[in-house]
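Re: that chain you flagged

S.,

Sorry for the slow reply, it's been a week of failed gels. I finally had a moment to sit down with the sequence you sent. For the record, here it is as I used it:
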Amino acid sequence: MSKRAVLDQTRKFRNRKSLMPPPRQSRSCVIVVENLPVPFDRRVWQEAQALARAGWLVSVICPANAAYPKRFEVIDDIAIYRHPLPLEGRGALAYFREYSAALLHEFRLLIKVHRERGFSIIQACNPPDLIFLAAAPFKLMGKKFIFDQHDVGPELFVVKYGHKGFLYRALMFFERMSYAMADFVITANATFKDLAVSRGGKAPSLIEVVYGVPDRKRIHRVEPEPGLHGGRKFVLGYLGIINEQDGVDHFVRAVADLVKVKGFRDFSAVVVGSGPALESVRELASLLGVEDFIRFTGYLSGERLLAHISAFDVGVIPDPFNEANDVMSMNKVFEYCALGIPTACYPLRETKRLLGEAGVYAPTLDPAGLAAACLSLMQDDGLRQRSAAAGAKLSAETFVWENEARKYVETYERALATLSAGAVEPAGPSAG
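Prediction finished late last night. Pasting the structure tokens below so you have them in one place:
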């Protein structure tokens, strides 16, 4: 055989080998998330990486979007399977269409992942609390099910629609079913753990609290983005998704209050992020006549993102008081603290429990109160420095991802331990 033929055969063997499924193993899992694509969903991506570092074979099922259009890719040895979703709409019909499409895609991809890579554990990340439906057939096959509760669906429904009718009761039922089917529950904070016990009837020993704090290796100060100050002394910043419930409209109205009521103009405001409500808050800024004071950057990532938030003199958490936000752990708390950014926010129960004295709280639950908190930080150098230092201390001593990752991986190990040797089915296809 010629040397060229040998090389061709070797190349064919390598290509065929690269397409072969990985070896079967019980330490394999699939994470299903419907709310955001991965790796954009920071919490889910950090969880997946923590498992991969601990020796697990990790697959993720998530939606695709314009920023992450690939239907399949492997990043850091984590296989990501993405599916399309209908455009987000309003009303019961739109939600039914979106959730039905997502469930069909999730079930289809669970079959695909089971065939190609295998899994012994399925993790479902809400919202919505419906993923248990796609996972149920695999639970009957002996797979373990972990419910990772990021949000409180029934409370979010009340925030959006202001009533507790049939759909609210349906959401309560789906939440209870997610708890009931779960072998273990992971919650985003201690308040959610209390709900899992009181509303879901789960034993506290089966619930682990894992806070979505950022990995300090990936979020740090860099050279601030030039020009964000626009010749003014301060930058008020917002970082996050822009949904209706996130309060970016409160941020815009607070800017208008600072400029037109309080007469303070020596600042620029920056909104870093994107989402369904982006255009409406842009229009609100124009309607209130403060478009010259607010810059909307859209979605940013990597060094550009770090450069923008490194320019923040005050980080704003404008999520208003309501049933859902009062018990939510805002990612912005952890992110601002990681960069030592002083924080202005509303006095929400969970936010106050996390920030403590590091936060500067609005005296009233409206944009005027939020503006007052921002103004106090801009006008008082000592307060600004104390808030920044207290936040940095929390990040260094309390908001430590390595500690949360250890609890998270230990939950998986406990779930795996409950699988008796005879109950573990082959996690992937046979070699024959």
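What I noticed first: The chain has two domains: 25-213+401-417, 234-397.

Talk soon,
D.
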